[in-house]
Amino acid sequence: MKVFDNKHIKNVAFVGTHRAGKTTLSETMLFEAGLINRRGTVEQQNTISDYHEFEHQRGASVFSTPLHTEWRNYKINILDTPGLDDFIGEIMSSIRVADTIVTVINAKHGADIGTEIIWNYVDKYHKPTLFVINKIDSEKANFEMSFNSLKELVGNNAVLIQYPIKIDGAQCIIDVLKMKCYKFGPEGGKPEKLAIPKDQQDYAKKLHNELVEKAAENDEALMELYFEKGTLNEDELRQGIKLGMLNHDMFPVFCVSALKDMGTGRLMGFIDNVAPAAADLNPEQTIEGKIIKPEMNADTSLFVFKNVHQPNLGQITFFKVMSGEVNFNDKLYNTRTGEIETLNQLYIMDGKQKHAVQKLTVGDIGATTKLKFTETNDTLASNPESGTIKPIKFPQPRLVKAVFAESNTEEEKLSDALKRMSSQDLTIDLSYNSETHQTLIGTQGELHLSTIEWILEHIYDVKARFEAPKISYRETIQRSATANYRHKKQSGGSGQFGQVHLKIEPYYEGMPEPEGFSLRGKEVVDLPWDGKLVFYNCIVGGVIDQRYLPSIMKGILDVMESGPLTDSYIRDIRVMVYDGKMHAVDSNDISFKIAGSYAFKEAFLNANPKLLEPIEQMQLRVPDEMIGNVMTELQSRRAIIQGIENEAHYQILKCAIPSVELTDFSSQLRSLTQGRATYSSSFDSYSAVPSHIQKQLIKEQELVTT
């Protein structure tokens, strides 16, 4: 297979909302270039890109799929991405390694909410971007509306390269860069090149002049040429457009019918001749602060952006060559682990089809199999000192569930499958809560979760069930209380005896030492679950021997590990042991441990015990017009609004909200805002549960216990 240099390799990620036509466009590009002789369709489930059984069931892309095509001595690597942000991990990994983002818009709907959601990620990466308005031949297509909605989204930096018209019923495209009219037959394909019709010449000239002005703005030399000549030729226009794309302040707009193969070849020509290549982009930075330049004669560095497990193939590792070149059988260092990996195979992937190659050069995208130590975000390098390329930062989970195997005998099988899946999809957050004894899985939403469930059942052959996770409550007290307990047991011979008198109080940092007691010793215990136990020895006259005090404290700590209200951890209490009795023969450590635990439990229940719940600090990004509904929803979930700031057409809202109220919040927020709002949250503190909720939780615990 032909080897291309870094100036003749173009990596494009097709992004856009669900049903925009990304998969159809990629299929048509492969057909147009002659790499396939028959185009598949999503409906017939025979496209190169959407090959996965689950994608066939859904009738839409779920995974990002690498493809490639060749057009006029250029290689175009295509990353066909899903259109729903439940699969944002697939979208982000593709954006990360693409040189140019091709955002596809459905001409029937314009730049809709799904486009806006994905655009926010594209804009964050500051990648060169062009827009393609697809389905221009549809009866319901509205190109003017689509372009205006696009300008509302990205501003006046969206610049028309093409617009559609009909001539005698035939679909035509006016190209204001080349100043040509392309006329297509009913089935599309190669167009007839015509002069621009007279009734369109003024409008086309106006758009051409706007394009020239916008292109000239990106370079002083071009601006001088423009002032000197009053225009720019086609080569100068291409140069200015590329610079504008690299600066992320010029977004060319094309129009196509991917289904009918109208305008696809022209789009591919623009990607070849104008769209930036890897060699044009800024050098990569490593986490150590080093620079990796996209040069052929540099040390080899590969960035792993995706791992996929496929039945019968094992793990497939996808990478982009960031510098140098990689050859079949090369040995490279994993800069994270220090392990050496041998690349026994090198492939170019077209969907599930593998094409073996001997070499890949800087800028190219390839794959290998059977790596032992390499995960997504890893760097493989010929020089172990090259450094680790900055990783993709994936969003935190929006939906968290407890996951169990349907059969207890398959728990280990489920655990192994989840670990493998989470190492491949870094938007899956897998953890174990030792307090609630639950395995927790964080996902990007209900659809992401259903995909995981399908893969577990059909790929790993294990059925799982998902439930709302238990909340890690805490218990404490609100006032002081005293109690005493005598433990006495006789069973022939030496028995057990211990009596303990104690007082407990709520503890807070900086509180004064207790009064009315003779303080003989103090021990502060930083509890593993946060909070403190402060234990005072206030024994006078030796009524309890010093050696039994650790046993009393151990009994107290045992109760604190499983509180009497909801079996939750107890925190922030101080205890004064001030009296008791012992027996010369029958007293021992176990006796005082039992006496201490019962005395503490009785005092705890008499000290107005209070349940505490975890509180999350949350930040939301909400469109201006939706802030009222979101605030109403938050307040119904007991959130405390802490502040609001403006950011363009969004409001940044900060609040504190109980963790239990976030169980289904992501789904409700998506419904309220049509997916336009986003949020992040992290644990902040514990706060008292309202009395009516505390009663309900205690009642539920009693039912579980009985």
Can you give keywords for this protein?
706 residues, alpha+beta, 7-stranded mixed β-sheet
Fold and architecture overview:
- With 706 residues, the chain is an alpha+beta fold.
- Helices cover 27% and strands 32% of the residues.
- It is built from 16 helices and 38 strands.
- The protein has a 7-stranded mixed beta sheet, with helices on both faces.
- The radius of gyration is 33 Å and the shape is elongated.
- Strand-residue fraction? 25-35%
Structural class category: alpha+beta
Rg estimate, integer Å: 33 Å
Shape: elongated
List low-pLDDT spans: none
Count of DSSP-assigned helices:
16
Report strand order across the widest sheet.
2-3-1-4-5-11-6
Report mean pLDDT, rounded to a whole number.
93
Helix fraction by DSSP (H/I, runs of at least 4)? 25-40%
Biggest sheet features: 7 strands, mixed
Count of DSSP strands: 38
Euclidean distance between termini CA atoms: 71 Å
What's the quick description here?
The chain is of the alpha+beta class and 706 residues long.
